[in-house]
Amino acid sequence: MNTPHRKIIHIDMDAFYASVALRDRPELQGKPVVVAWDAPRSVICAASYEARRYGLRSAMAVTTAKRLCPQAVYVAPDFDRYRAISAHIHGIFRRYTPHIEPLSLDEAYLDVSGYDGPLPYARDIARAIRADIAAETGLTASAGIAPNKFLAKIASDWRKPNGQFVIAPSQVLPFLAQLPVGKIPGVGKVTERKMQQLGWHTVGQLAQAERAQLVLHFGRWGHRLYDLARGQDSRPVQSRHERQQLSTEITLPEDESLHRIERHLPALAADVAAHLRRKQLSGSCITLKLKSADFHTLTRSQTFSAPLEGESALLQAARPLLQRFPDLPQGYRLIGLGVSHFATAAQLPLWESVP
Ligand SMILES: [Mg+2]
Prior knowledge:
The chain has 355 residues and is of the alpha+beta class. The protein folds into three domains: 1-167, Alpha-Beta Plaits (2-Layer Sandwich), CATH 3.30.70.270; 176-228, 5' to 3' exonuclease, C-terminal subdomain (DNA polymerase, domain 1), CATH 1.10.150.20; 245-353, Dna Ligase, domain 1 (2-Layer Sandwich), CATH 3.30.1490. It contains 15 helices and twelve strands. A five-stranded mixed β-sheet has the order 5-6-1-7-8. A four-stranded antiparallel β-sheet has the order 9-12-10-11. Helix 10 crosses helix 11 (221-229). The longest helix has 16 residues, at 79-94. The two termini are 37 Å apart. Mean pLDDT is 91; it is low at 345-355. The structure holds magnesium ion. Residues 12-13, 16, 106-107 line the site of magnesium ion. The site of magnesium ion has 5 residues, from strand 1.
């Protein structure tokens, strides 16, 4: 099945907590501002761009920060205030899409694939959202626009602060070819050094590695790295509500190859369908989960434009997912099937009200 490219926007407020402090206290403009409890053992919650010039970073110990930049101004965090602004920003997002996945108070993924308003491109939607945020909160945000969450998150960092960057589907591979591996979310200093020692400095080089090599060096995360290096990330944008999942799973009596596992799908689909029927639910996202013989869990998901109704629809959706798993030589020990993205009450078909 050939699905059209998704349009994902990652919105990230610029130095959020510090920017709120600078906005509320204009006399701090141009000064290095640190949001933290001014106590011996506390760490920095946020550093303004001015403070970052002195090497100050969030999560840095305040004692270290004071050595690096004694003249920094300390402002106590005010989470009620941040939450209120975050709620306002989410209200702005909802003008453009209902598909919003918050990552924290100042970051969210938006899926605007289904947008049918007047703006022609996702980049225009991102620009409009950032303009609304600036006009209504006095704060700046940066945005990344890409076909999936992984790339959108990298892109939002590309033109920070107060900027945006697009990775179009045709640009994904050229973009990744030059990207330092350290830019992959989750690759910290230690992993970065390890990758470099293995000769993988760029994501392009990482994409030359065999899947087995990546699993050998990075465990189950290697599977994900294999996909990411190719610019592939099928994770849906899920609101809190959508993340709820109804699922079932079976542990196999003995480890089985990917090919043999397929015969369990009808029973799983029937069970999930019966569950959904009892709860009067239907969902548009299906997830297949496999646990390898050495206890690594892998999942593959697909979101559809309409809810999947009934056993055969679930089965039809699940079969192609199975082909997206690696055919591990050690086989699999567990298979699970789940449905999420439940339709809201207004979207439920009429028969739900028949007694
Ligand atoms: Mg931020």
